[in-house]
Amino acid sequence: MKDLPEGCIRRLPLYLRQAQRYSDSGVDTVSSKELSEDIGVSPETIRKDLSQFGEFGTRGVGYNPEKLVKEIKSILNLHSTWDLALVGVGNIGSALLTNPEFEEGGFCITLAFDRDPEVVGKNIGGLEVLDVEEMTSRISEEGIDMGVIAVPPGNAQSIADSFVEGGVTGILNFAPVKVDVPSGIELIQVDITCELSRLAYYTGEKLRTKEIEDNYLGEE
Amino acid sequence: MKDLPEGCIRRLPLYLRQAQRYSDSGVDTVSSKELSEDIGVSPETIRKDLSQFGEFGTRGVGYNPEKLVKEIKSILNLHSTWDLALVGVGNIGSALLTNPEFEEGGFCITLAFDRDPEVVGKNIGGLEVLDVEEMTSRISEEGIDMGVIAVPPGNAQSIADSFVEGGVTGILNFAPVKVDVPSGIELIQVDITCELSRLAYYTGEKLRTKEIEDNYLGEE
User: Fold this and answer.
1) What is the rounded distance in angstroms from the CA atom of residue B217 to the CA atom of residue B59?
2) Which of A12, A180, A205 has the alpha carbon at shortest distance from B9?
3) B9 touches chain A (CB under 8 A)
């Protein structure tokens, strides 16, 4: 398959989730306009994204949600569930372990590791937390392809290294630090404080605009 | 100030965090090359981003981390701490309440709400959880400008509406659903399952490449 633009890959999961919701509620057909209203992406973009994969919908009729789910799952490599290994069962890690969204999305954390003796052996979200010393061997034994890093910044690189050693190909990193991985490994970072900083920039700008408008109205 | 490109606004928090780390460890000067190695953004992009704000560094010498921190904080509207209101103290909400990164980044959750009677009144991360019924009045009284939504998808829109009613200007939404806000309100969504789906796409592609290479080697 040809390489897809990053924007499209970011939107496909939104189409998938919404199509799944339509399908679950028994909706037969959905137009790009309806889909647009429910997910906040323009109908033109939706049509352009989906037209790349051939005949998804019927012109003038719309898309069949069930078919959409099946096709997008196949494009995103979500036809079967991905088993994940999580390292770091602190605040974010525990939240991930008990997140119902993951299962619906096709992801299942099957191994969880921590280095804190008080956490190792505990059962969180139905899973026993294992000692991080075992991570490379266990990941390799179970053939896990995807790992999640939820440890403090100072330990993130060594966990990434162990993931790579254990044979993981994709890593989601929640630690607020850059980690280096070989070129055959895919790494995506989720950085909540960066998102808040971005929000601060835009919010500050909007507050300034509001202030200027208020002052202007006050002068009338 | 002129509008900054989105990419630049996404990178500025990374520069800021790293500059703060240099500054904390007593580093006097840092080159764009060193900064590049530590955060994984090319030196050209760093120089281009920072040159927009005037004379940040000295040609051939580098940037002063302390000055960098001060200037980027000013650009991102982070010169003083932002007080945040959080709604939904479930798994993600609790993780946010106890996240040390927030404070370092200039954010402080000062109000937390939930609708579960078993959670209301509890002290989490040093903060008493309040009844969500009070949220609009409390946010408005305290003059909170930024809110965080960490409730299930079905309740996200009504929480967003209450935030707007209470006078909030910026919203960070962790609920995996689109919420509508008026044009004067800034909304940023953090969608962990979407990030995992994106990772699944890239990981699947890399696994396929690996398989093809392995088969090819096997034939030799």
Assistant:
1) 49
2) A205
3) yes
